[in-house]
Amino acid sequence: MLAFTTALLTALPLTFGGVDPAPVGIDEAAPVITRDDIVIDAPLSRVWRTQTDVENWPAWQPAVSSSVKQTPGALRPGSSWVWSTEGLNDIASTVEQVQPKRRIVWGGPAQGITAVHVWTFTKTEDGVHVHTEESWTGDPVSANTAYLQEALDESLDDWLHNLKRESERESKRKSGPGSRVRP
């Protein structure tokens, strides 16, 4: 009985919303790292939903040609999907950490490149501040660092602007006379 009680007490902080686990981050020693930010004039719930609806990415991300979830339901640690973008085919991404409407981290391999991608979302007076950072490691990265650095910089900049356009477009479409843009 003592062992059971000890185990139960040890698990309580996890079960009842104790301290968040230490944040998972990018590989700070990676040869390619990109960080970028944008402010989106839309509700946080809409920006989060747009970004985490991975199967809908091809509808608003021109560079994403396909994205298929392998696990049902909302993204959570262990959720995975396979997607293709900008010549990288069959990227197998897996969620490492999620704090709903605040932070999501995923990563995985693609053609010898291992990526870790962190997204943070912060509600502000002007809408939502989105910060993203991604690291790439692997033999292809070491062999062509300058080219892949430029490619990742451009890709994340495009991603953020597409996320902004889609989230704000949805806000404008749903707003009308007398309606509020940020519910």
Describe the structure.
It contains five helices and seven strands. Helix 2 packs across helix 5. The longest helix is centred in the C-terminal third of the chain and has 30 residues. With 183 residues, it is α+β, with helices and mostly antiparallel strands. Strand 5 and strand 6 form a beta hairpin. The chain is globular, with a radius of gyration of 19 Å. The protein has a seven-stranded antiparallel β-sheet.
Task: Give the topology, please.
Blueprint: H1 2-15, E1 32-40, H2 44-52, H3 57-60, E2 64-69, E3 80-85, E4 88-99, E5 103-110, E6 113-124, E7 127-137, H4 139-143, H5 145-174
Antiparallel strand pairs: 1-7, 2-3, 3-4, 4-5, 5-6, 6-7
Helix pairs in contact: 2-5
| Count of helical stretches | 5
Arithmetic mean pLDDT: 86
- Could you describe the largest sheet, including whether it forms a barrel? 7 strands, antiparallel
Beta-strand residue fraction: 25-35%
Strand order of the largest sheet: 1-7-6-5-4-3-2
Shape: globular
What series of H and E elements makes up the topology? HEHHEEEEEEHH
Backbone structural class: alpha+beta
Radius of gyration: 19 Å
Measure the end-to-end span.
50 Å
Low-confidence segments, given as residue ranges, are 1-18, 178-183
Helical residue percent? 25-40%
SS elements, strand count: 7
